[in-house]
Specification:
Length: 261
């Protein structure tokens, strides 16, 4: 079977020395020494996991689009492939784009259907208007850090068996950070709000925002279950607690930022 690596430049496979168990099986999460072996100069064969007897990572044959579709469908194997077996070197860029997207929606009052917070100045001054966007960006940077921090703290408090080091050698905080960014990809669905804001009612926009946030929370639960290796019920408890407390503290921070508008 010939093996291609179509995701080169997107999520490249991690490179490890032979014999190191730094990859993981995307089906059961068990560390494996490799994902494929070379049969000849042009042929490769996928390695089967010793535990579940399935191909350790079927996604090494798939196009990036298929992997992203499975990720959107909240597939655990897709999460494991990207987080454990791939070099997620571009995730920080995705995180920055998502924060700027949310900041723009908040600054442009696209979220006014579900919140009373606004950073847009009523004074017709370009400088004040631009300052509102920067304050909105700070708002979401702080919100991301609070969410990540509370998920980490609650995981340590409620799931004491969370690994200090994950299957591919990365530390747990590092992997959790990548996971939170990856779970935030669903927030790209905020783009239609900015496009159709003028021709949509407040009620429709509020429903859209709530559905996107619900999908984001579900993605966080799935990601946390993968990274922390715990049951979905416990992941759900940890994520919801972190989300609620983050919202409370972020409201207080927003009150302070609004004083500068």
């Amino acid at each position: 079977m010939k093996l291609s690596l179509p995701f080169q430049g997107y999520f490249d496979l991690l490179k490890h020395q032979p014999g190191e168990k730094k990859f993981v099986c995307i089906n059961c999460g068990r560390p494996v020494s490799g994902l494929y072996r070379q049969i000849s100069s042009t042929a490769w064969k996928m390695i089967e996991c010793e535990k579940c007897k399935k191909p350790a990572d079927k996604y090494i044959e798939f196009e990036v689009l298929i992997i992203l579709i499975d990720l959107i469908l909240l597939s655990k194997p897709a999460y494991r492939h990207i987080l454990y077996n791939s070099d997620c070197k571009n995730l920080w860029k995705i995180g920055c784009v998502l924060i700027l997207l949310e900041a723009y929606c908040f600054w442009s009052d696209a979220f006014r259907g579900i919140t009373s917070i606004s950073y847009r100045s009523h004074v017709n001054d370009p400088f004040l208007s631009e300052k509102g966007f920067y304050l909105s960006t700070i708002h979401f940077v702080v919100g991301f850090l609070l969410l990540y921090g509370f998920i980490y703290l609650f995981t340590r408090a409620l799931h004491r068996t969370a690994p200090k080091e994950t299957g591919n050698g990365k530390t747990y905080p590092h992997m959790l950070l990548h996971g939170v960014i990856l779970a935030s990809i669903g927030k790209f669905m905020f783009i239609p709000i900015s496009i159709w804001r003028g021709s949509s009612t407040e009620t429709c926009m509020a429903i859209h925002i709530i559905l996107v946030l619900m999908y984001f929370v579900i993605s966080l639960v799935q990601m946390h279950s993968v990274v922390s290796d715990c049951a979905r019920s416990r992941s759900c408890l940890i994520v919801i607690l972190a989300f609620i407390i983050k919202a409370y503290f972020l409201t207080r921070v927003s009150g302070l930022l609004q004083e500068f508008v």
